[in-house]
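Q: I'm writing up a methods section and want to include an example of the input and output format. Could you take the sequence below and give the corresponding predicted structure tokens, formatted cleanly so I can copy it straight into the document?
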Amino acid sequence: MSGRLVGALLLVIALVAPAAARAAVPVPAVTGPIPSTATSHPFGAAAYQLVPEDLAAVGYVEEEYFVSGTANVYEWPAAGPAVVRTPDAPYTTRILVRRPIDPADSSGNAVVEMLNPSNNFDLNIGWAIMRKHLVRSGDTWVGISSRPVTVNALQTFDPQRYAALNWANPDPQCTITGVEAGTERGLVWDMNSQVAAWLKSNAATNPLRGAIEKTYGFGYSQTGGFLNTYVNAIHPLANDASGKPIYDGYFITVAGGNFVGMVPINACRQAPPLNDPRRITANVGVPVIRTMSQSDYISGIAARRADSDEPQDRYRHYEMAGAAHASPFELYYSARSEDIVKAGRPVPPFACNEGTRSRFPTGVLFDAMLQNLDNWVRNGTPPPPGRMIELATPSTPVVDAHGNVVGGVRSPYVDVPTSTWFGNATGASFCFIAGYEVPFSAAKLQQLYPTKADYVAKVTASVRSLVAQRYLTEADGRDIIQEANFACTPGPVTDPRLPICWTDADGDVSGTVPATLSLTLGPNVSFGAFTPGVTKEYTATTTANVISTAGDATLSVRDPTGTGHLVNGAYSLPEPLLVAGSALPATVKTYTGPVSNDPVTIAFSQLVKATDGLRTGTYSKTLTFTLSTTTP
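A: Here is the clean output for your methods example:
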């Protein structure tokens, strides 16, 4: 979200103190976890979101902590590091931590998000957009309450729980009115540094002590502007005891140029103007990835800059074709409506004049960017090239025959479209950056994709290309192909409040799927030893148990790689693997009504010819079995 004015200021005087010698970022005092009870729970807690989440079901736990320490108030008079104006102001803020229950399951990464305050309460936007990827990867997510206006909301929501939070201004040099009166927003910079120091520390209060190796700063919209300011002004000052940066990389999202490109360094200052050298993000010393959406790339166009792989200036800039800024996901996976009202804030609207907020799945693009950032930091592997949306004029994009923008980071949703995606709507609140879609008519869909198989084939080709280029992760690519095969309606399946028409279980693990469809697989299959020089058909079986309360159901199997052959490194068997007598993809069994605990024997066969060259080792393949329905 873009910044919203929460108070007026009257500047009276400001004195810039000389820069103090900078020691290692201190580890703050941390209290918690703060208990969650029937009468008091964290604002924005996973179990109390608009769409609640059971984190324990995916091996995660949520904990709220209070973080206390001292923070400097800075001035930033010129390009380069900020300077201390007022040192050592006491503070207490709160953080939400979502992490693997067992620290041994941690990836070693922590994504630290200054929570977006644009609606005047904390929004868990990074978690909302990337939560599936974070859990798949074993990443820890930490959200920091990042502005006095949201602390006011917390203390309104639960005065007793949040009584200790403190952002008091230690040295008022201007008059602030409104809900932020008497506070200093500039304390956030050292809070952000100290939370990262705590995560990497062996402090007894750190539940992940010894597990976190890399910290990545994340900001979205207004807090993307926070992160722009932090990277350019504070990052040079924020080191650990060895002198290394406390943050290992930054993911700055939907903030740049004239769209929240910077925020004030303290409560008395304005953000640097557009052409100010302080706005140039370069030579940070750690990798920086910035991405803009279709809602904000034109107003943020001044943030465009060239890619760089230089060690001191590792940088990428992306613009996401089709993606909107103010998404519904930030509302699904943040505080529920009754808690927002209890915090004294209006509930943001889902709908704009053109319809509901865009369901474009920004997460599939964010997931790949975060994964590429991690690979850049850990392995030195540069991300794929930056991609910009093409412009016909300085304020008008080039569009294709379907009205979708040309250029930018692509996805199957714009390359094999079922809708025209718009980045800007009209209406209340943040509708101007909410975006919307206009679905294609049935006649147009029929013209573009005469058969379902044609549509699925085009989506699959798009996915494979984008995964190979690393603009999509393999996991998201698989989900998009499954979506194309089985979605109840064309396009992305992103509204968690609606029923879905399929669920997956991989062939090399057993799993129980949601209530209406249940598929449990038996042991993994082995053909035993293949004998070179002998023609023989090898056979094996496994079992599945099917429960379906749907009007119809189909049990099918496919090879996610699309080859349908067993492989041994770079070698593959010439003859295809057969399942239920057919090459992949194959239908194992169909049902025309409800079924309970139906035992299914799944037969596998593999022909090896006497002339087939066999490489020493194991030929194998992971298959995906899917139980799907068209009538949930």
